[in-house]
Design a protein that fits this description.
8 helices
């Protein structure tokens, strides 16, 4: 869940920074002849109405010391005056880059949840750093504001529930196919001389299809329900798809082989249908080869 949220935050970070920095600059110019602390505090109180989801607004001096208690809708967060925050990224990045910045998610000392902070340096007319204004926003609230289809949105939750139901139904199908395939052979017990080749082929097809569906269930559940959707591991996703397609090709190949033997014995005039199936399997193999080549080219890029 947290990994998914961080990935989504990386997608909307530029937009979130632009919006937060625009609001800060709109109410508080970053270059003032004589920056007034009272005026800045009043501006933050107005800004609090513009960003009602923000956890806290506070001001640091040029050395990184918090000089006011946090301004917040939550009375429990109205504290922090006198805390040295010079080691925090939102302080030293704003000082170093001399512009409004938005941090990576980090555990907040205030709420103990993942939080992002927009920090905004204030300079006097001599371009000397006077204050740094900070706005804390929880990661989940940032996603709700800037990523409407995020994991915590109504549609996102509905999508997760839907995928869970689909994967559960597919899992039942895979389990039923597996037990049917196993039982079709075990019904003969240890009387191996009574085994029917046709039953063995059909059992192999059922178990192979069960494996293919199980791989699909595993991929859907991990990516869409659990949120383990790692961009840098696209090769794992392609690997699952290749395994799924390979299982289908194997199942169809076994079916084609079984039809060849069957029609050769009971109906040679129908063997053309087995040939059609072999042709279809060949086309699937060409398609799989093209897919492998395309994936390799994509990963190299």
């Amino acid at each position: 869940m947290i990994v998914r949220e961080i990935e989504q935050y990386s997608e909307i970070r530029t937009k979130a920074r632009a919006y937060l920095c625009y609001l800060l600059q709109r109410y508080i110019p970053n270059y003032m002849p004589e920056p007034s602390l009272d005026n800045i505090i009043n501006a933050l109180k107005i800004l609090k109405k513009e960003i009602p989801h923000a956890e806290a607004f506070y001001i640091l001096d040029k050395s990184g010391m918090q000089i006011i208690d946090a301004i917040s809708n939550n009375p429990e967060y109205r504290r922090g005056k006198g805390i040295n925050r010079s080691m925090r990224a939102y302080y030293y990045r704003a000082v170093k880059e001399k512009r409004c910045i938005l941090t990576d998610p980090y555990p907040s000392l205030l709420t103990h949840e993942l939080t992002v902070t927009a920090s905004y340096p204030i300079y006097n007319d001599k371009k000397q750093l006077i204050y740094i204004i900070c706005v804390d926003l929880s990661l989940s609230d940032a996603l709700k504001i800037f990523h409407p289809t995020s994991i915590d949105s109504i549609f996102g939750n509905f999508s997760k529930i839907s995928y869970f139901l689909f994967t559960f139904a597919l899992l039942i199908v895979a389990v039923l196919l597996f037990f049917k395939g196993v039982m079709s052979v075990l019904v003969y017990g240890f009387h191996f001389q009574n085994l029917d080749i046709k039953e063995i082929f059909e059992s192999t097809i059922l178990i192979t299809l069960s494996l293919a569906i199980f791989d699909l269930v595993k991929t859907l559940f991990e990516e869409e329900v659990l949120g383990h959707h790692k961009r840098r591991e696209t090769s794992d996703i392609h690997k699952t798809m290749i395994r799924f397609l390979g299982s289908i090709v194997i199942a169809l190949s076994i079916e084609a082989l079984m039809l060849v033997f069957k029609f050769a014995i009971i109906g040679p005039e129908k063997i053309i249908y087995a040939v059609y199936l072999v042709g279809a399997v060949t086309l699937l193999l060409f398609g799989l080869s093209f897919y492998l080549k395309a994936v390799k080219g994509y990963e190299e890029e």
